[in-house]
Amino acid sequence: MTESALSPELEAVVAAAEASAASFAATRPEDRAGAIVAIADALEAAKARLVEIAMRETGLTEARLNGEVTRTAVQLRLFADTLVDGAYLDARIDPADPDFVLGPRPDVRRTHLPLGPVINFSASNFPFAFSVLGGDSAAILAAGCPLIVKAHSGHPELSDATAEVALAALRGTGMPDGIFQLVHGRDAGVEILKDPRIKAGSFTGSIGIGRLLADIAAARPAPIPFYGELGSVNPVFITADAIAERADAIASGYLTSVSGSAGQLCTKPGFVFIPEGSALPAAIATTGTDLPEHRLLGPRIAQSFADRRDAILASTGVRPVLAGAIRFDEDGQGWATPTVVAVSLDDFRSGREALVEEAFGPLSILVEVPAGTDLAALMPEFYEGNLTGTLHLSEREATGETENAGELRALVSAISRQVGRVLFNGWSTGVAVTPAQQHGGPWPATTNDSSTSVGTAAIARFQRPVAYQNAPAAFLPAALRDDNPLGVPQAFSPAGESPQWGARWR
After folding, report:
1. What molecular functions are annotated in GO for this chain (predicted)?
2. Which residues are catalytic?
3. Low-confidence ranges of the chain (pLDDT < 70)
4. Domain ranges of the chain
């Protein structure tokens, strides 16, 4: 290996991760699961101290942060069960078959192995759930990969305190040294990402920084996978019948979703397509009169939001439904109340370049659509990829038996092609931590639209497939052995089946 270009401090971090990779990959699933659960338990035990730090550094509320600690612990425990269950290993066994239709088939067995050391770049807006011990970190550790976390500059003290909790828990369970480390500084993260000993990267943040990091990972002499969650405006479509049925309830849910955590959520509904002349803007104006102001995460984010808000309000045809406001205190922190604006579809089309970009903060745009508009055509017209797309239907429309059912099915199909999660009669903020969850989508929502950062499938990002041919039992990974000591699901393709492949379709 060529001499390292890293500083002595960073070289020690990467070297420790590399040195621990083989021993960590070889740990029993039950032992890794126990270590991950120990981290979850320790995190909850330290909740009060960590939340106090997080409130001070991020401006998020105590209730929100307490809930986020719980969510983070649940994520960790979910991955503990996932790695013991073993379905993610996708173990496949094709026994030797002397009568295989293409000639004698060797014994072929396939499973997944850990990639090796991974660097995870923390998010600003989820100081627990997408940060030091967040979903990416949980998946990386569950996969058996040494983890280096690049702390977010918006909550450095919290990052250090959370890392201390994790390290104490891992040491207490006898895990190898070097499997969990924390670094600070963008330059440090970039230099580690470039190092050939790092085998993958993950990131949650802006499109600009995410693209920069993804390009670095792809431009390495040996490119590596990079899983970035970047930007999303999460379009919503609301039918006339739904508004007539429950305008006030829709308005209330919408404002809660837009204003929660000061709108600093990647799943916030940024654009809502509604029928021209509907009662929803008035319902929103009435419902949103007393919403409290909320501090944004930091001065840089607050200033960016203020600039984006000004640009939107200055766009042709845009009119305030809720004017909202943002003020700056003596420390440069921004305090905002929600801004909701409306614009005609024609003005939205003509002002697309100024309007369609994500506004990271409590702002959302209602797009008023004339009757007879092909809603399905609006998705590819305005958007590349998003994390979510939402439909609000009336009770009758939800049966799929109304006169507009064909149009709604076409809209669902169009949305499905451009998002990772399709919602009905709900709001996209609040991502359920559950095995079937998909939290990803086509660019620029993520850098890899076949993966997810939430749900048990997230572990697959940090493993790679390996096949073993005619391997003696003594040299097989445990997941591929006939006695199946791990008790994981195994898919078999028995000998003698190949002559019947496709027969059912003749």
Report:
1. aldehyde dehydrogenase (NADP+) activity
2. 229, 266
3. 1-4
4. 8-230+452-463, 236-424
